[in-house]
Write a structure and sequence with these properties.
about 150 residues, alpha+beta, Thiol Ester Dehydrase, Chain A, 6-stranded antiparallel sheet
Length: about 150
């Protein structure tokens, strides 16, 4: 049992490194944390750099945060393959102009080929500003071959 916990922790840290290494994340000041199987949390600071013309966060930010949180919640259960988003449904519930936003991802179902996970965005006042549900499928891409997933070599 201890080995399984240690293996899971190694997988979670590797997924966090994978997230940080993704080139797209150089554009966003965000941080992924995976504390347990089926759960992921991403924190992100909304600044004017991500605003649309009316002065609130653009929907692309909502999508990225929701998709990433749900994706990593699901991929925390798949230790061998990279998952791919096959569909994602979103609902915007409140605009956000600035401050810390947290995306909370949670695995819902599926463990073999297809996974379903959901996520919600919460603003700095604790109010939900958006939510989404995604379907993710195992790819042929081995996690172990991806830069960032492998432990840093010394």
């Amino acid at each position: 049992m201890v080995e399984a916990v240690a293996g899971a922790e190694l997988h979670y840290r590797a997924l966090e490194r994978l997230y940080a290494a993704a080139p797209v994340n150089a554009l966003f000041a965000s941080r992924l944390e995976i504390a347990e199987e089926g759960r992921a949390r991403i924190t992100f600071e909304v600044t004017p750099a991500v605003h649309h013309a009316a002065g609130a966060a653009h929907g692309t930010i909502y999508f990225k945060m929701l998709d990433d949180a749900a994706f990593y919640a699901a991929n925390s259960l798949a230790t061998d393959r990279f998952l791919l988003t096959t569909s994602f449904n979103m609902h915007f519930t409140k605009p956000v102009r600035g401050g810390l936003v947290v995306a909370e991802g949670r695995w819902v179902s599926g463990r073999k080929r297809v996974f379903v996970a959901e996520a919600r965005l919460v603003d700095s006042e604790g109010e939900e500003i958006g939510r989404g549900t995604g379907t993710f499928m195992r790819s042929r891409i081995a996690l172990s071959g991806l830069p960032g997933y492998r432990a840093e070599e010394s």
